[in-house]
């Protein structure tokens, strides 16, 4: 009889201990989840992003999504096409921006400066935003493929039925890029708003 009580008692202790352990793990995981999500969707350079997003009337979450996809927040990133910095500004775009903004003593290496890179990126996004009537799908596609390509696609019934929206993006890289940026944009909004 005493043996049965001990066994029952030890099983009961084991079950209680297991439940407490599982509950503790769930609580820690729940509290860590927020930290993990924010690590996957960081807000590095947020002060600079918010500054220029406001100046150029661009959603800062769109800017963060583009930076995440273009450079993974690496200010020294260089693409195989020589685009540079956080927002992967092409040297020719940097030169054009330096004349329009104006930026004194411009050189391509200045594109590695996070503040200047984000300023130029937001400036360029504002141009695309105006050109494509604030249609984020078109703006993001144009940021990747160029506004000339997107304009041509809109005028081609093979890619656009109404001339205002793209039904199909012929560049696979741009199609995937657009999907990822827009997905990340929605996630940034959900996490930080």
From TrEMBL:
<dbReference type="Pfam" id="PF01464">
    <property type="entry name" value="SLT"/>
</dbReference>
<feature type="transmembrane region" description="Helical">
    <location>
        <begin position="12"/>
        <end position="37"/>
    </location>
</feature>
<dbReference type="InterPro" id="IPR008258">
    <property type="entry name" value="Transglycosylase_SLT_dom_1"/>
</dbReference>
<dbReference type="GO" id="GO:0008933">
    <property type="term" value="F:peptidoglycan lytic transglycosylase activity"/>
</dbReference>
<comment type="similarity">
    <text>Belongs to the transglycosylase Slt family.</text>
</comment>
<protein>
    <submittedName>
        <fullName>Soluble lytic murein transglycosylase</fullName>
    </submittedName>
</protein>
<dbReference type="InterPro" id="IPR023346">
    <property type="entry name" value="Lysozyme-like_dom_sf"/>
</dbReference>
<keyword id="KW-1133">Transmembrane helix</keyword>
<dbReference type="InterPro" id="IPR000189">
    <property type="entry name" value="Transglyc_AS"/>
</dbReference>
<dbReference type="GO" id="GO:0000270">
    <property type="term" value="P:peptidoglycan metabolic process"/>
</dbReference>
<keyword id="KW-0812">Transmembrane</keyword>
<keyword id="KW-0472">Membrane</keyword>
<feature type="domain" description="Transglycosylase SLT">
    <location>
        <begin position="49"/>
        <end position="158"/>
    </location>
</feature>
<dbReference type="GO" id="GO:0016020">
    <property type="term" value="C:membrane"/>
</dbReference>
């Amino acid at each position: 009889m005493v043996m049965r009580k001990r066994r029952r008692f030890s099983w009961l202790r084991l079950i209680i201990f297991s439940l407490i352990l599982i509950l503790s793990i769930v609580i820690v995981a729940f509290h860590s989840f927020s930290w993990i999500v924010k690590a996957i969707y960081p807000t590095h350079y947020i002060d600079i992003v918010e500054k220029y997003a406001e100046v150029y009337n661009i959603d800062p979450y769109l800017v963060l999504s583009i930076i995440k996809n273009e450079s993974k927040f690496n200010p020294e990133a260089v693409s195989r096409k020589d685009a540079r910095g956080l927002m992967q500004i092409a040297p020719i775009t940097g030169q054009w921006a330096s004349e329009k903004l104006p930026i004194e003593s411009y050189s391509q290496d200045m594109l590695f400066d996070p503040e200047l890179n984000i300023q130029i990126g937001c400036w360029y996004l504002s141009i695309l935003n105006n050109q494509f009537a604030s249609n984020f799908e078109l703006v993001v596609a144009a940021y990747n493929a160029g506004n000339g390509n997107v304009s041509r696609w809109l005028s081609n019934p093979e890619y656009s039925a109404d001339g205002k929206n793209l039904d199909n993006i012929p560049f696979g890289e741009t199609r995937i890029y657009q999907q990822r940026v827009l997905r990340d944009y929605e996630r940034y909004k959900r996490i930080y708003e």
